[in-house]
Amino acid sequence: MGSMSLLRLPPGPVDLTTIPTDATPDFDGDKADGKEALAELGDELSDLQERLFAEGRSGSHRRLLLVLQGMDTSGKGGVLRHTVGLIDPQGVRIHSFKAPTEEEKQHHFLWRVKRKLPEAGYVGVFDRSHYEDVLIVRVHDWVDPRTVESRYEQINEFEKELAADGTVVLKCMLHISPDTQKERLLARLDDPTKYWKFNPGDIDERGHWGDYRAAYETMLERTNTEIAPWHVVPADRKWYRNLAVGRLLRDALRGMNPQWPTADFDIDAEKQRLADEVPPA
Amino acid sequence: MGSMSLLRLPPGPVDLTTIPTDATPDFDGDKADGKEALAELGDELSDLQERLFAEGRSGSHRRLLLVLQGMDTSGKGGVLRHTVGLIDPQGVRIHSFKAPTEEEKQHHFLWRVKRKLPEAGYVGVFDRSHYEDVLIVRVHDWVDPRTVESRYEQINEFEKELAADGTVVLKCMLHISPDTQKERLLARLDDPTKYWKFNPGDIDERGHWGDYRAAYETMLERTNTEIAPWHVVPADRKWYRNLAVGRLLRDALRGMNPQWPTADFDIDAEKQRLADEVPPA
Questions:
Q1: Which of A51, A73, B11, B169 has the fewest CB atoms in 10 Å of its CB?
Q2: 3-state SS string over A2-53?
Q3: Do A267 and B195 touch (CB under 8 A)?
Q4: Which residue of chain B is at minimal alpha-carbon distance from A88?
Q5: Chain A nearest-CA residue for B276
Q6: B1 pLDDT higher than 70
Q7: How far is Cα of residue B122 from the mean position of the Cα atoms in its chain?
């Protein structure tokens, strides 16, 4: 059960063209092996998540926040379904960030994000996140460059506060090639059960691929902190993407090492009460 | 793949002592068969849920709300984990209602419930619900009988409005015997990984078993409407409980018959745009 240390982005400048989108770092097997390895993660993920949840019910502040970023069709939804779906849904809180509402626009860009943070003991998942506020807004010049510049630091500061408050932040960028995106968009146009996922605007956004890459590269470099590092997950192969995020999640939970809470009551006395009771009817 | 029509509570007075807690209505197999049948539900549940979700993204108001009620240890959590856990977590919104907060207490009893209703396209799940406001409050006389009396009608009116707004309300009471509860409480006291689930107050509540049964019986009779009927699920056998709720969920989604939305764009024109584009780099 290898860990996924190769996916952790090293410090320094980032050139996404040098990071393969179809590789399978830290994993030797093929697709069938990968699916099996993902299924095998289920028990350990469930155990770790339940321990974290139990801790949260017993006064611990700890929680985990998985942040998923990536271009359209990079597979954020697939990770939610196949990887996050392995965990007991009682302990998971997913939030998908869309274009900000009028109300959200009137607030600081972190306002809506802070309202959706997971509670103690939970695994929170952000499908897109505060990182959109240094990506799409930069590509389309919706915000002046100085403001974007200031946001990298604000994000780092925010994530530092989260960490200080017991939140482990696991950041994954799902990395696909433009060819893979094209295939997936065509697949949506070829399958009536996928029409609803298609938006003509997605093709317009493809026209800005180079700008998005540049925005991602700067963002990755500037927010790749020791306390909340980025992981770049090759995502052309769906099975590898799902497995890699699953193992990163497992590694993060292992690192937290959550423990079953001890009893805050007298176990023998409670057993005796049950033994002595008048049987309910 | 039989439906679970026997679980639907017939109209009229309810005597829970006449409904077996360890039976397996509408199912012939044993535990292994039941677990297999539950796993087999996964694909159909996923397909139906995704259709509902797709509809919701395309303007439909429809949604489903699963309401789970039952005594402590009746297995609400187990249903969430094993049955609701079969569905893509992106399309599910679970809310566990605890003792009301000070803020919640200052509002109408339905206030907190209305704030947690699922959005269009979602499967919402209430782990406990507005029904606590005619159960525990009645058992402990926290609310005068006349108020409790008025709440049955308010609940029926509320659920009628939900239905009119496109929400299918699926109500399940998980029905266990006091002996099964005793076994499960003892199991929590015997297993350090389960201490966190144990609360000494649970044993105190057992002392009110008869009062709870009476409160459930009245509640079931008074809120068992045509539009939002109750299902009483024998829950002494965990595997049957999980399967039964899964099939009820499947039946409810089948009844909604959600359809893939048609394309609101010109499919061929979009394909052409992808074919004609300058390849992104």
A1: B11
A2: CCCHHHECCCCCCCHHHCCCCCCCCCCCCHHHHHHHHHHHHHHHHHHHHHHH
A3: yes
A4: B81
A5: A203
A6: no
A7: 13
- For residue A84, the chain B residues in CB contact (below 8 A) are 89
For residue range B28-83, list pLDDT tens digits in order: 999 999 999 999 999 999 999 999 999 999 999 999 999 999 999 999 999 999 99
pTM of full prediction above 0.80: yes
Return d(Cα A91, Cα B92) in angstroms, integer: 12
In a domain, A281, yes or no: no
Residue labelled with tokens 């982005």: A9
* Domains in chain B, number: 1
Domain span including residue B249: 5-276
Nearest CA in chain A to B94: A90
B191 falls within a domain: yes
Residue-wise pLDDT tens digits, B152-179: 999 999 999 999 999 999 999 999 999 9
What pLDDT band is residue B5 in, cutting at 50, 70 and 90? confident
Task: Specify if B281 maps to a domain.
Answer: no
Q: Is residue A156 assigned to a domain?
A: yes
ipTM, two decimals: 0.94
User: Which CATH number belongs to the domain containing residue A252 in this structure?
Assistant: 3.40.50.300
Compute the distance between CA of residue B269 and CA of residue B88 in angstroms, rounded to an integer.
32
Reference B127, options B184, B167, B75, B205; nearest CA is B75
